[in-house]
Amino acid sequence: MVDIVIIGAGVIGSFVARSLSKYQLSICVTDRHIDAAMGASGANSGIIHAGYDAIPGTLKAKFNIEGSDMMEKTCEELNVPYKKTGSLVIAFNDEEISKIQEMYDHGTKEGIRDMSLISKEQVLTLEPNLSPEIKGALLAKTAAIVSPYKLNINALENAVRNGVEFLREHTVLGIKKEKEVFSVITDKGTLTCRMVINCAGLYADEIARMVGDDSFKIIPRSGEYILLDKSEGTLVNHVVFQAPTMEGKGVLITSTVDGNLLIGPDAKEIKDKDERDTHRSSIDYVYKKGLQTTDKLLLHKSVTIFTGVRATPDKGDFIIEESRYCKGFINVAGIESPGLSSAPAIGNHVALIVKSIIGDISEKENYSMTLEKKKYFSEMNEEEKKEAILKNPLYGKIICRCESVTEGEIIDSIHQKAGAVTIDGVKRRTRAGMGRCQGGFCLPHVMDILSRELKVDKDKIQKGDEGSYILTGRTRQ
Question: What is the pLDDT of residue 54?
Fold first, then answer.
């Protein structure tokens, strides 16, 4: 029996675990996937929003602003790339000028710093590659970009190093409560605990119904993206949004912290929460909308396309509270955008809810909210590379040529406390396979390393979730 079971190892579940990991509590995080960051947390734009577009007084507004203020320090603690780029919301007509004025007014009411409405001439001075049809823009200097999957993974890694247990591939089938004890029934067995925290993302409504809570519904909304090569990464200096619509925040263009250029997403409701298909019509739409922002987008420079599915709540706001239907069951649900921006603040808030239910909880004598500072080999100068190779000669062996990822880095990623066990797990931790060839060169080498380090046959190595095997068997002995 443990004190708390957290369902979901996305960015929210991982930050809740991290915030609680400093206390004298036994905690486990379960996820139906084989790794963290395999849902929306690993397939989004990686933007830390300034907070001007949330309705004042909502939880979205509150936690976006708090989380944004915390993010730079949080990324430093977790050794996650962070870049304060600022953002622009551009307007092409008078209706959109009114919309960005409304967003400015929202932000002003919430006390957001360093915002201004700027003219066409000012926009084009900041971003000379944008369309001359622009009439004006909202500039928010506090917006930033991060690596979304790295933020998720490192928050969970920090929690696990503080004693939290991570249970991979544990699909929750049911929850029962008898007296003060929960039984969380999974396909791998039953977990007993005093408290359940529901961070199940797209499935949070279904998890809540297991304890009789039908107070909200999650609507899956997909968004497709185009990722362009690093040669295109300097096309814009800011995160550039188009004015939002009823469907979402609109198609954006931004560099990533790793130097690529990202365009997207579209927004459409879907029925299947597990659908991750990409569609020619959606990619054409994203590209066409992107061309309205700048006609310098080169589609033939794309290295990949992908889909993320957002957990949109029918309530229109985040749901963060102890369930009215079941004491000791906390919903942290409907955390769509700006969920990534809000994650550190939400984690701390949920810890306060837990303390209000349980009472005083002592902090552990030994815990740390930081991970060791490490650079990617590709970011090291010559002296740092020499030093790394002297310490570990495997840092002198490049496995991924596109991203200059070494064998030493891949081995380190596998042997973390919550380390990689799949091709995609290595990819998200090291960037091996994220370059121009998308793993065409390095994939078999990464498989070799995983097989050796995990002591499993190569035909048991998976790309991602269960069944995603690269090899089907031997053709000869």
Answer: 86
Write down the mean pLDDT value for the chain. Answer: 96
Q: How many CB atoms lie within 10 A of CB 95?
A: 9
- Specify whether 279 is catalytic: no
Q: Hey, is 182 helix, strand or coil?
A: strand
At the fourth CATH level, which superfamily is domain 84-144+219-312? Answer: D-Amino Acid Oxidase, subunit A, domain 2 (3.30.9.10)
Q: How far apart are CA 453 and CA 443, in angstroms?
A: 15
Q: Which two tokens stand for residue 408?
A: 């030493």
Please tell me the pTM assigned to this model: 0.96
Element containing residue 30 per DSSP (H, E): strand 27-30
Rounded to whole angstroms, how far apart are CA atoms 91 and 133?
9
Task: Dump pLDDT digits (tens) for 115-157.
Answer: 999 999 999 999 999 999 999 999 999 999 999 999 999 999 9
Domain 377-460 belongs in CATH node 1.10.1740.10: no
User: At residue 246, does pLDDT exceed 70?
Assistant: no
Of 33, 49, 106, 170, catalytic: 49
- Tokens representing 35? 């790794």
